[in-house]
Amino acid sequence: MKNISLIVNNKICNVNIEEDLRLLDLLRDKLNLTGTKEGCSEGECGACTVIMDGELVDSCLVMAFQAEGKEILTIEGVQNGEEIHPIQKAFLDVGAVQCGFCTPGMVLAAKSILDKNPNPNRDYIREGISGNLCRCTGYNKIVDAVEIAASYLNNDIDKAKEIATKYECKEGN
Ligand code: FES
Ligand code: FES
Residue 150: which residues within 8 A CB-CB, separation 6 or more? Predict the structure, then answer.
């Protein structure tokens, strides 16, 4: 057992960990942050995505001891108090959430995209979510949602509505 401290969703956490514990297990089993999902367990699906020191990581591939002293953001830390984050609102607006299994990782991938580029085009968004698999949506609605979220975050509500109308009920989305 080893004791480490790290910051998770703006809170300092001191936890005892086994040497072979993954960051994913630390979050889910020790900190009860079960919004982070486990899919493939081998870095392929992105369901376990979190942001560590500003970068997207697959938490199934990071050992818990590697997170010592780091700052981690999980889906539970994205919203502001009772208020959902504009990215989450945009996902709901356009139906980019179906079964929801990929959604926590997708929202964090979207956050990473928008933190780096407040005005991404659709190709940039597709590239940014390329490490996250979704078996339900066909991806178009997720790309729409990230575009709309960019408008929300830029306080351009008219543009957000325009995008939502443009992609509304498009066959094959
Ligand atoms: S569970 Fe980590 S990438 Fe799939
Ligand atoms: S909404 Fe079901 S996997 Fe993406």
Answer: 114, 118, 119, 120
Cα(53)–Cα(39) distance, rounded to whole angstroms?
Answer: 23
Ligand 1: centre distance to CA 47 (Å): 5
Q: Is 114 exposed, middle or buried (0-12, 13-18, 19+ CB in 10 A)?
A: buried
Residue range 126-150, pLDDT digits in tens: 999 999 999 999 999 999 999 999 9
What are 32-52's pLDDT values in tens digits? 999 999 999 999 999 999 999
Ligand 1 centre to CA of 24 (Å) is 9
Instruction: Work out whether strand 11-17 and strand 49-52 pair parallel, antiparallel, or are unpaired.
Output: unpaired
